[in-house]
Amino acid sequence: VQLQASGGGLVQAGDSLRLSCAASGRSFETYAIGWFRRVPGKEREFVAAISWSGGITYYRDSVKGRFTISRDNVKDTVYLQMDSLKPEDTAVYYCAADKRRRTTYTEARYMSSSLYAYWGKGTQVTVSS
Predict the structure, then answer these.
(1) CB contact at 8 A, 85 and 14
(2) Residues 6 or more apart from 113 whose CB is under 8 A from it?
(3) Bridge partners of 91?
(4) Model confidence over 59-68: pLDDT tens digits?
(5) Of 16, 29, 37, 111, which is least surrounded by CB within 10 A?
């Protein structure tokens, strides 16, 4: 599975962005997808995840109620709708795919980067105050 994140940009606090994670390869619909972000000098952190079926989603606490993850398996794309953006959301955002197919996990497992075997190039999100 090959992934490509897009949709980043420079916005003001309170604005919205929608990130896309486009996949190529077989059986995209059978993989869980996660979004992570990294700020220079800091550890990569979990943002959101969606199960392979789309029926389960998880978010880090700081984005709950503002971000929404969804998937369109016809288009082989996962989206991250980001509303009410804050300067602390500034980071490079990456999407990643699970290493197993059609597998469901605990919340803690989805939040761990070790779950994901396939990573796309990131997209920069910059939120000005």
Answers:
(1) yes
(2) 34, 36, 44, 46, 96
(3) 125
(4) 999 999 999 9
(5) 16
Which residues, other chains included, contact 54 with Cβ-Cβ below 8 Å and sequence gap of 6+?
A: 70, 71, 73
pLDDT value at 86 more than 90: yes
8-state DSSP, 109: H
**What is the C-alpha to C-alpha distance for residues 64 and 60, in angstroms, rounded to an integer?**
6
3-state class of 19 per DSSP?
A: strand
Distance CA 37, CA 3 (A): 15
The tokens 């220079």 sit on which residue?
Answer: 40
3-state secondary structure string, 21-53? EEEECCCHHHCCEEEEEECCCCCCEEEEEECCC
pLDDT band at 1 (very low <50, low <70, confident <90, very high): confident
Separation CA 51–CA 1 (nearest Å): 16
Which helix (H) or strand (E) segment holds residue 110: the answer is helix 107-110
